[in-house]
Amino acid sequence: MENIMEITVIIITSLLIITGIVAIDYSIRTWIDKVNGSVVLKRWLIWLRVVIPMVAIVMIDLNYSDATDIWGRLTGYSVEISIACYFIVHVHDKLFVYATDCMALVVMLFNISVYFPAVPNYQDFGRLLLSLFGVLLTIFINHLIYSYDVFKIRSRVRFFVIICLYSMSWWSILSLNQTFSGYDLLAQMVASIVNISIILSLDLVFRKQLESLTHEIDADFLTQIGNRKAFEFAFQQLFNKYEKRQHDWYLVMLDIDDFKQINDQFGHIVGDTALRRLSKEVNLQLYDLQLDASFFRIGGEEFAILLTHIDESHLPQIIEQLKTTVGRIDITTNGEQSVKISISMGVAKYQNHDNSAAVLYERAGSYLYAAKKDGKNSVNYEGNKLIK
């Protein structure tokens, strides 16, 4: 009974720590988003996001290292692993990635110095190889998440596989500790997966709450996609995030051809219907293609799409599918007339010489203008006709 109570206290404490970490991180993230004028203050807040998980992990380690029960010490490790995973996913800072890499290596070296026997047998060498594999796998996953934002993928299976691999990598490192049985390691590997799932689920709950609170402010009143304010914020954030990283990302600007003529000939109700239908269909298409994309109405009949993690060779196919989707839209007027719409698009790829978001925006706008001038219902990509 006493053991059950102790384990219950440990689990509740772990959940409280995890919840507190997520809440603190979201508070800092909110401050970062609100700080526009002071670059120094913003940088300090970003550094704070890097330091907090490191301090939390050290404090948890010191707290649980005194636990007399082995389950308590193992639970401490499990919580630390879940916190490391959470911040690897969200911080996107090289310092934290490298610090976590070093942490994995230090843990392995510490366990070698303490637990590796002077006269090892085959089983000891097996544990050593498993631990080394764990270090390499941890480093690989850290950099994979940092480089490709893999937790934005919509495949739950892949999402869960990465969580399992991350847990397995750390417990492989800890397998050198011969005071842990195989059962202990397996049980805590499962516990780590549960903890990571909990902490990322809490993150999702916090994110959805924030999205619901800001939806009325950031959503376009007619189409319910992002408005101009939301676009400018997301565009600047994306530019800042990838300014010094080698990732392909694109700004796509599009508008409805001859929209004024549609309004004049069929009325503003038909025009509004066209805007709503286009927004809905393009949004669904972006989702179906499982793209890391954000869609905004930035004024009148003009829209913008932010595309990240897209291979340039796949871009023409994506653009063609979006144009085809819009081309299938058929609006019936009160007079039973059928109204078809088409779009022109200007696509700009982020380049190293783009020293500000405004430069990239102006370039995409010039490509849209060129597409319209080229006969409409066309696409201009970096000054060249992509599709007609």
Automatic annotation (TrEMBL):
Coiled coil residues, start to end: none
Question: Where in this chain does the record put each GGDEF domain?
Answer: 247-384
Write down the Pfam families for this protein, in alphabetical order: GGDEF
Q: Which residues cross the membrane?
A: 6-24, 44-64, 70-89, 96-116, 128-145, 157-173, 185-206
Is the keyword Transmembrane assigned to this protein? yes
Which UniProt key words apply to this protein?
Membrane, Transmembrane, Transmembrane helix
User: Sorted alphabetically, which NCBIfam families does this protein's record hold?
Assistant: GGDEF
Q: Name the chain's protein.
A: GGDEF domain-containing protein
